[in-house]
Design a protein that fits this description.
With 201 residues, the chain is mainly alpha-helical. Helix content is 81%, strand content 0%. Helix 2 packs antiparallel against helix 3.
Amino acid sequence: MGGIIKENGFFLSILIIALVPAIFEEVVYRGIFYNEYRKAKPLQAIFLSAFLFGIIHGNLNQFVYAFLMGIVFALIIEVTDSILSTMIIHFFINGTSVTALHLYSKSMNVEEEASQLEASLDQILTFTEIMKTLLWPAIICTILAAFVYVAIAKNEGRWEWIKEIFIKRKNQNEEKLISISLVIAIVICIVIMIMNEIYLQ
């Protein structure tokens, strides 16, 4: 990401990293994959579409948060009944990352490669320090988000539908979501992810 910002500038980077992925990734993973899977098994569709969204990012670090965000995005689709809502949130998340890295690079009065900027962030903030700093705010924000989610669902008249997602219906379609071609694609993505973790260390 840092290299793109350094080479293309802030506004073009917002377009490349924030706007384009927000539109196309949401269309593919929520608009196509999730929308089709949910017709058969809504709950499994949430996790499968989130998993596919995670592995396409190509490395373990991005997989973890992309998988979690994929779950959140699917739930947001259900409560708002609109893909536009996840596009906006997706754009905001990516745009915030671009802006933060851009401001950080501007605060440096030396010429550095973008990769060095990101490496320095890793050195400054260890995993333990990040957890200590963000754990409680994350817990509090998650609880608040849950209350807001329920309030929106009730206001939109979709709370009963949301609850039904987590209840197996007697007439639920038994169609399998996993196919041979999907398994092959998943294996390829996992192999690429492992290779990235090994060779990019």
